[in-house]
Amino acid sequence: MKPAWHKNSWFWAAVILTVAKLWLLRGQWIYAIGNAKHDDRLFLELTAHILQGEWLGPYDHLTLAKGPLYSLFIAGTFLAGLPLAFAQQLLYLGAGVLVLRAARPILTSSRSYFFAYTLLLVNPLTYEGESMTRLLRQHLLVPLGLMVAAGLIALLLRRTASLRSRLPWTILLGLALGGVWLTREETIWIFSIIIVIGSKIMIDAWRDGAAARRAMAWLLGIAATGFLLPLFIICALNLHYYGWFGTVEFRSSDFKDAYGALTRVQVGPMYPNVPVSRQAREALYQVSPAFAELRTYFEGPDLPWADREFFKPAEPQILGGWFMWALRDAVAHAGHATSAKEALSFYRRIATEVNQACNDGRIPAGPPHSGFLPPWRPAYTAGLINQFSAHFSYFTYLDHFTTRPPYSIGTDDELRLFRDLTRDEISPSLTAIFIEQPKRDQLNLRKLEWLQLIGRPVSAIMYYITLLALAATTLRLGQCLWQRRMPNTLWLALGMWAAFMGAFAVNLLVQVTSFINQYPAVVAAAYSFLPLFIVFVALDLNDAWGPIFRRILGSSLHFTTEAKADLRHWGWAFLTTSLLLVVSWLLRNLAGTAAGLSTAAVFILLIGLRLARPRPTATPTPHHRSGWALALLSLTLGGLTFFWSSPLEFNRDQRWKNILRPAGTLIDLKFHFTTASALPDGRLMGAAGIPSENLRNTFYGTHVEGPQTITNIQSDPITITGPYLVVPFAGFPQAAGNALILRIEDVSGAMLQEIICPTPNPRDLSFWQIDVRAYPFQSAKLILHDQRTQNEGWVAVAPPHFTSNEQEAAQRERHWQLERWTAARLILLALALVTFAWSGLLSRRADRP
Questions:
Q1: What is the Cα–Cα distance from 503 to 369, expressed in whole angstroms?
Q2: What pairs with residue 701 in β-bridges?
């Protein structure tokens, strides 16, 4: 019988991990965007009105534009005296605990509880810094989505439980679904998990007889009440304060009909991501007097929403993601947003006039349309096919993952509301003078680096495990369809996958039809279901195939004396072959690193000796077989560590230096501004949006004052002394308005050639190899061109070096990509050593007479 402390050890391990995560996250700051009046700042302004007892405050065109629940949550944390970021983490962890509590009937051991909880705990998007440190509704949407899943899981797994025991889970399901509806407006994807798991719940109730069907009808009614109750409360408040019974105006038929009517028009060029072109607007002014009142806003000299990256200023086009906001701003500019009733009446006028003109043939148009998904075009179908793979990879691999928040944007007045209402520190701002800066001590910076070291390997491991789980689910689904029996664990796995793919599909549609939609926050709601998908797939595979594998493994390890003698010879042969392979691999990739070579040789030698040692007893025992199994596991794990570029170099900064600054690097190369700047050239070092401070300080870049910087910089002259120049770079050199260029000049300074970096934008950094054999001993300059004002608006390079190796950049790229798995390889190495020691201990116990 296990002692009491052992029974609770998994619980206390989970508590320690939770406390450690919360402690690490206290080193992360709020990323405040003071002028984000349609997003972050809007939530805080609504919160301020709630705290003053004014509901959402005086009406304007933004008051009822977004769901109010996140603002209510911020107000609640403020009244409770909690820092907002801390409260958001507690809510997420609480939702995770509810999910595991709901799955208690199939999580039959404390180890399985710990495994599932740990997967939820290390979710990288709960400590991502670039966008998840902003004040976004995803912080509420993610835990609410998990609560919806918890309610469905509990009802499925408590099929025969009493009505009373299922009642709390039903109430949770209804209230959480209502919360999701009041948080964001595009949450139709949440019904994918309801359809999959809910259909199984209904099938079970139907099969269980009339009593079960009556009980399910009661539960459905309670869930519907829980869903409608918060909606009714919000609608009643809006009716009282603004004279309109509804939740948000984006869901009102008046606004959706007006937007849909405008997108029917087919005049002028049909740009893929532009729902209403400038030419269409000109035609609409002639047929709709209501829309003509908005002309001064849409055709003004400085249209705020016009895209200036893909269209010329003389051709002001508005992308799909922004046109709805441009329309609301235009209505307010025209004076028709003094009340909700007046605004919605004006939208109805636009819808009626435009639809009538389209139906009468006075303007070329497609069929009637309502809502924000634009009328379908063939280009959208091609876009979905072409972008599916890349978008799926982004959703699961989390490219550009970083834990470091960007610099806050705004003046003191704009940022003071963020500091006061969040009770949290905000990241430094270059334009705020009096707002207290966060403590940038070494410990907090280390915390961010530790989080980065955790998150990057976790996201990579999750990516590959997800692919394996998806393949296993496909096989299991085929097996269950053949057997005409599907267990609850597989239903739950399919439900989690449906939730993930539902959110993924919505965001892919936005990406194809409206604007580039790849940033971490849009992934958050979908990604939170991946850990649950992996957990339920693992449980299903353990129930279905676990006994088979255990029988096969037990039989294969039942060795006779003759078999063990043969195995010793094969073990020595395997040892010799492994040593030769490792030696050649290390010599080729590490240029003869003696430390790494000796480590590999000793490790393989120990494994070989372990496999080859004679056995005094011919009778296999359970411990004997366990020793063999652990030795083989140790061999596998140890072999994986040899794919790490530097097996013995545990100092991360030194490994990075070995990759970025080999012998011959031009470390004294300096860069200078070529556009007017009030800043000294020295500010260019470290001006890169790279999370690690140590790595960032090895780069020169254009990210001098944050993403709003527009500047050009260039290097000192470089004399070409080798056939190839390798340049480490980061940022967005291929984006519109950005470029990384090598300019080659003659002795007089006249340009001979400009070579533009063609390499795709890297996940974090990459290596550009330039063939300069045609320009021996000529002068060259690296030029960084940055004319973007978004987060992608920066380019950076580290000191380059010359090489005669045609594959130098590819090799360094491969070594750098292996750095993503460094933490995972260290863990594998530790596991290999532990299992090796354990196997030796068990073998000694088995060999005792």
A1: 23
A2: 796
Nearest one of 253, 243, 332 to 55, comparing CA atoms: 243
* Angstrom distance (rounded) from CA 41 to CA 35: 7
Environment class of 491 (CB within 10 Å of its CB; exposed 0-12, middle 13-18, buried 19+):
buried
Model pLDDT, residue 495:
94
CA distances from 409 to 43, 127, 222, 307, 789 (A): 16, 20, 46, 21, 12
Structure tokens at 335: 């004076």
Residue 769: strand, helix, or coil: strand
Find where tokens 């829309």 sit. 291
Task: Report the candidate in 818, 807, 839, 809 with the shortest Cα–Cα distance to residue 647.
Answer: 818
What region, left, alpha or beta, does residue 55 occupy, with left being phi > 0 and alpha being psi -120 to 50 degrees? left
Of residues 213 and 312, more confidence is placed in 213
Q: Residue holding tokens 């532009």?
A: 274
Collapsing DSSP states into helix, strand and coil, what is residue 671? Answer: strand
Query: Could you tell me how far CA 635 lies from the centroid of its own chain?
Result: 34
Helix spans in 407-487 (H): 412-422, 442-483
pLDDT in tens, 746-784: 877 788 888 988 876 776 788 999 998 888 888 899 999
Give residue 706's region: left, alpha or beta (phi > 0; psi -120 to 50).
left
The DSSP output letter for 760 is P
Give the number of C-alpha atoms closer than 13 A to the C-alpha of residue 480, restricted to the C-beta side.
19
Q: Reduced to 3 states, what is the DSSP secondary structure of residue 375?
A: coil
The one-character DSSP state at 816 is: H
Cα(776)–Cα(720) distance, integer angstroms? 6
Total Cβ atoms within 10 A of residue 262: 23
Using one digit for the tens of pLDDT, what is the confidence trace for 272-311?
788 898 899 999 999 999 999 999 888 877 788 887 766 7
Sign of the alpha-carbon torsion through 291, 294, 299, 304: negative
pLDDT tens per residue across span 658-679: 788 887 788 888 899 988 887 8
Q: What torsion, rounded to 10 degrees, do the Cα atoms 182, 183, 187, 193 define?
A: -90
Query: Which is nearest to 143 in space by CA: 72, 88, 95?
Result: 95
User: Quick check: 614 and 844 in contact, CB under 8 A?
Assistant: no
443-493 pLDDT, tens digit each: 777 888 888 888 878 888 888 888 888 888 888 888 888 888 889 999 999
Burial of 372 (0-12, 13-18, 19+ CB in 10 A): buried
Give the residue, 794 or 736, on which the prediction is more confident.
794
275 closest CA partner among 285, 264, 283, 286: 264
C-alpha span between 86 and 78 (Å, rounded): 12
Note the helical H segments in 699-821: 808-818
What is d(CA 795, CA 230) in angstroms, rounded to the nearest whole number?
Answer: 47
CB 10 within 8 A of CB 35: no
Indicate whether this model's pTM tops 0.85.
no
Contact assessment for residue 681 and residue 687, using Cβ atoms and an 8 Å cutoff: no
Task: Answer for the pair 466, 534: CB distance below 8 angstroms, yes or no.
Answer: yes
Cα distance between residue 671 and residue 715, in whole Å: 4
> Which of these, 555, 609, 606, lies nearest to 563 by C-alpha position?
555
The span from the CA of 511 to the CA of 505, in Å, is 10
Query: Could you give the CA distance from residue 335 to residue 338 in angstroms, rounded to a whole number?
Result: 7
**Rounded Cα distance, 249 and 556, in Å:** 66
Mean pLDDT of the chain, nearest integer: 81
SS (H, E, C) 173-207: HHHHHHHHHCCCCCHHHHHHHHHHHHHHHHHHHHH
